[in-house]
Design a protein that fits this description.
Blueprint: E1 6-15, E2 18-28, E3 33-38, H1 44-51, E4 59-64, E5 67-68, H2 74-81, E6 84-87, H3 99-110, H4 115-128, H5 144-156, E7 162-166, H6 174-191, E8 194-198, H7 202-208, E9 211-216, E10 219-224, H8 226-230, H9 235-249
Parallel strand pairs: 3-8, 3-9, 6-7, 7-8
Antiparallel strand pairs: 1-2, 1-4, 4-5, 9-10
């Protein structure tokens, strides 16, 4: 059997020695798209911070590509994290830099590639996310959906083995959110990138996720496909998904139901 791309073994995460999530056992295989969801404060974004190297777990072991991320010397940990990409909830683009310079930043910081090669890689990646010919634009002149796609271009520019996406379609209307979903699916099919996505958008989950991991009650509450979770015998999981589905049909947001 192949080594899982990501593995959490008894992981607890939190702040100031106070756990938000405890005893998380989670395996993510190469090529999967896994959605992480749950109510506000359930710990899914805190776990994402640990997966991206920003927050050491309080307990347990977190492995990426079979290597224990937080047990590695700092140089080795940074080398491993360079094989990942992160798209933040707020696009985190630099407003004073052109779109091309924003997307090129990881290449300039972490590689020795010539500028001509960097320029071509940026051009191709912007084309892939549906922003051809936009290299000279400033983020401040772009729509929210365009900035989200530019952030995905930057997160993927080093061809990571896994990308972590925090609410990639939050705040976007359904048509624009659908373009984000299509971009993520294209990353998987064209580049072979594994995706771990924190999202509250049920329609997005239905579209992109191979598997859903739902957090609540301080740990993993349920896992499986959307259909499996909608048929769950756990009343909290069943009610959550069916209330969300009803609210989504009425144009509401998943987050409103979890506050």
């Amino acid at each position: 059997m192949s080594t899982p791309l990501i593995e959490c073994r008894g992981v607890s995460v939190g702040y100031d020695h106070k756990p938000v999530l405890e005893n998380v056992d989670l395996t993510i295989e190469q090529g999967e798209i896994v959605a992480l969801l749950g109510g506000s404060g359930c710990g899914k974004s805190t776990l994402l911070r640990s997966l991206t190297g920003l927050l050491a777990p309080l307990a347990g072991e977190l492995l990426i590509l079979g290597q224990p991320l937080y047990d590695l010397p700092l140089d080795e940990r940074n080398q491993l994290l360079r094989r990942t990409g992160t798209a933040f909830q707020q696009d985190a683009l630099f407003g004073s830099m052109s779109l091309a310079d924003n997307v090129a930043l990881p290449l300039r910081e972490l590689t020795q590639l010539p500028e001509a090669v960097i320029a071509e890689m940026v051009r191709m990646r912007l084309f892939m996310v549906g922003l051809p010919g936009q290299e000279a634009k400033l983020p401040t002149s772009m729509s929210g959906g365009q900035r989200k796609r530019a952030a995905l271009a930057r997160a993927s520019i080093l061809d990571p083995v896994v990308m972590f996406c925090d609410e990639p379609s939050a705040g976007l209307d359904p048509a624009v959110a659908a373009t984000i979903d299509a971009t993520l699916l294209h990353f998987r099919s064209a580049l072979g990138i594994t995706l771990v996505v924190v999202t509250h958008e049920l329609e997005s989950i239905r579209t992109i996720a191979d598997r859903v991991v739902m957090f609540g009650r301080g740990s993993i509450m349920a896992g499986g496909t959307v259909d499996e979770l909608m048929a769950s015998k756990d009343p909290d999981v069943f009610n959550f998904f069916h209330r969300v589905a009803e609210q989504a049909d009425e144009g509401g947001a998943l987050e409103q139901l979890t506050r």
